[in-house]
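Re: that backbone. Tokens:
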């Protein structure tokens, strides 16, 4: 199967084929998701929360995004790899954005970048796409604006006009698809009908052209127990699995049951450590 491209992903909408997206941040998890047939591996700036243990995505740097994206892109044979623009690269204008975007494509082999913001950032998106840097836009709730917005709010009827202007603007600027974050279901349905590019929803209901979720939420790999996010369905409980495995290992070491004969090198012959 040839590796998916932004244009192929765009064509899924006409074909009525749902776009399956998950975040990924390292080589082994990316390999698993790629082999499982996930269409897009998004190296989200959510790496700040999920991997670095920070409370927002704002501290994530361009260097860190390049570091994680390179690992994910090396693992992906089928999926399109998309790297997030970290704060404040969506806000610095076209020149900085093209410089950052071209570094991402050159240094990581990613196929596209993700870019938060709609109408007010459309010129920058156009500069990126004109420079040959494919853009997955991101409208609705934009986590990089958390300090200004004061929280993560679901986008409802009162945001309709701005949301629709944002979607039309990113479509005209050449984005190949758009992430729609936390938009009330009926509004997301209308938004999806409004534009020719696919909408990839997170917390935006079933009518979007695709879905994206965060790896750690989906697989239950979150160290803080607490209530799961409403939109994030959990498909496994890695927390519990890893806790039990770690306890078994600790017990074996403390009881002298590990390493046993099967895991020890014995005899005089020279061997490789395999
Ligand atoms: O950073 C991220 O993981 C994202 C997704 C939640 C869409 O932006």
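Recovered sequence:
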């Amino acid at each position: 199967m040839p590796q998916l491209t932004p244009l192929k992903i765009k064509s899924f909408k006409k074909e009525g084929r749902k776009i399956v997206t998950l975040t990924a941040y390292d080589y082994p998890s990316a390999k698993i998701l790629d082999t499982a047939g996930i269409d897009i591996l998004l190296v989200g700036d959510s790496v700040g929360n999920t991997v670095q243990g920070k409370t927002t995505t704002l501290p994530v740097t361009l260097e860190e995004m390049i570091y994680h994206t390179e690992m994910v892109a090396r693992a992906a044979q089928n999926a399109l790899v998309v790297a997030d623009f970290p704060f404040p690269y969506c806000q610095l204008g076209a020149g900085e954005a093209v410089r950052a975007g071209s570094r991402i494509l050159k240094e990581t082999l990613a196929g596209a970048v993700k870019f938060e913001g709609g109408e007010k950032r459309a010129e920058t998106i156009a500069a990126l796409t004109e420079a040959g840097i494919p853009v997955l836009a991101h409208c609705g709730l934009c986590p990089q604006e958390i300090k200004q917005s004061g929280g993560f709010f679901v986008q409802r009827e009162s945001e309709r006009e701005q949301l629709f202007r944002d979607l039309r603007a990113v479509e005209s600027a050449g984005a190949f698809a758009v992430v729609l974050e936390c938009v009330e279901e009926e509004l997301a349905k209308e938004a999806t009908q409004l534009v020719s590019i696919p909408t990839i929803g997170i917390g935006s209901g079933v009518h979007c052209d695709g879905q994206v979720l965060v790896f750690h939420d989906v697989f239950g790999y979150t160290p803080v127990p607490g209530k799961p996010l409403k939109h994030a369905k959990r498909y496994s409980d890695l927390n519990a699995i890893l806790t039990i495995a770690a306890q078994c290992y600790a017990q074996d070491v403390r009881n002298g049951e590990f390493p046993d004969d099967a895991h020890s090198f014995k005899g005089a012959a020279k061997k490789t450590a395999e």
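DSSP finds eleven helices and eight strands in the chain. The radius of gyration is 21 Å.
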